[in-house]
Write a structure and sequence with these properties.
Layout (H helix, E strand, L loop, with lengths): L2 E11 L5 H12 L2 E6 L5 E8 H13 L5 E9 L7 E3 L4
Parallel strand pairs: 2-5
Antiparallel strand pairs: 1-3, 1-4, 2-3
């Protein structure tokens, strides 16, 4: 299995709508590793790592987010690191 790691920057109405908690749940379903956090500028940042197919499914989920979110944009960047589990981080 080919593994990939990406950093996602998600903008729009993505804070205060359970985006992070929903992403943690989705990552657990997909068996992904990494983290998610709110940014002080109102965006959400995440690092997702795992099989290419599963990461692709997470990216598609991130474009929509949970039902109360309104994602305006999603930027994807290659990222490096090795992660265990998927968790929320403190805002930055």
């Amino acid at each position: 299995m080919v593994e990939v790691t990406y950093r996602l920057e998600i903008r729009g109405l993505v804070q205060g709508v359970y985006y992070r908690g929903s992403m943690v749940s989705q990552a657990e379903v997909l068996g992904l590793r990494g983290w998610v956090r709110n940014r002080l500028d109102g965006s959400v940042e995440a690092v997702v790592q795992g099989g290419a197919h599963e990461v692709s499914r997470m990216v598609e989920w991130a474009r929509r987010g949970p039902s109360h979110a309104a994602v305006a944009s999603l930027d994807i960047f290659p990222y490096e690191g090795d992660f265990v589990g998927f968790h929320q981080r403190e805002s930055a």
